[in-house]
Amino acid sequence: MRFDGKTVLVTGAGSGIGHEMARRFLEEGATVYAADLDPAGVPHGTVPLAVDVTDPDPVAAAVSRAVAETGALHVLCNNAGASSTTDPVSCTVEDWDRTFAVNCRGVFLGTKFALPHMLAQRYGVIVNTASVAGLVGLPDRAAYCASKGAVIAFTRQVAVQYAGTGVRCNSICPGTVDSPWVGRLLAAAGDPARARDQLVARQPMGRLGTPGEVAAAALYLASDDAAFVTGTELVLDGGLLAG
Ligand code: NAD
């Protein structure tokens, strides 16, 4: 019950990693506001919010509602993300901008609207979902790698700006996680079973990560167990980058 009495807002909570974050925060006592483009799938017991993280008004409204109803916002998980599977030549301007709008503008907006409340209460934790793609170059992920690198850089900036105020900001960098997202990427590969086998063969542990394993790391960073941790990125990749 590390989050008993805490108010938590998770974006992208309708599926995969964000769903598991929201479910676990709830399990550990938090009041959870679960934002998604399509909130139909958010965990039962959370407060579902229809939010497009690229749009300032609904993001601001989600933060305001959480604060109005509970009196505080303790934790923000900027988790919603968009994939892009193109190289720098084939990536269109629209693809580039859309990827950055969800992955970067979304993280910026959540942070921008949450911070005034967190600073006023002299307590707040922001956890941004980046990716190993923000740390290394991956083929056919031009906009995705660049946007996740920006999430990591912004996380450090926020951490430094507010260190000493009671506000912490960290990012998590998952490797390949068995969420509906990866299911869609594999389905697009033509022979999904073969593509999955190839993906798994590249993993040092011989398996993909689970959304629960990533959520557990986010909850650690969001908890007071991580009181001295800010401005860092936590890699959860089953040893992939170490190799
Ligand atoms: P997912 O597709 O299962 O879930 C993503 C959720 O985000 C969906 O419910 C979707 O509706 C929501 N979303 C998308 N755009 C949105 C927007 N504009 N506004 C609000 N909600 C929006 O994917 P996932 O695997 O759980 O991914 C979650 C995060 O983890 C993403 O930021 C992704 O980049 C990151 N990530 C995933 C993996 C992986 O292998 N699955 C690896 C590294 C990082």
TrEMBL record:
> Which superkingdom heads the taxonomic lineage of this protein's source?
Bacteria
Q: What is this protein called?
A: SDR family oxidoreductase
Q: Does the keyword Oxidoreductase apply?
A: yes
- What family does the database annotate? Belongs to the short-chain dehydrogenases/reductases (SDR) family.
Q: What keywords tag this UniProt record? A: Oxidoreductase
| Organism whose genome encodes this protein | Dactylosporangium darangshiense
SUPFAM superfamilies named among the record's database cross-references: NAD(P)-binding Rossmann-fold domains
NCBIfam families noted in UniProt: PRK07231.1
Q: Name one Pfam family in it.
A: adh_short_C2
Keyword Oxidoreductase included in the entry's annotation: yes
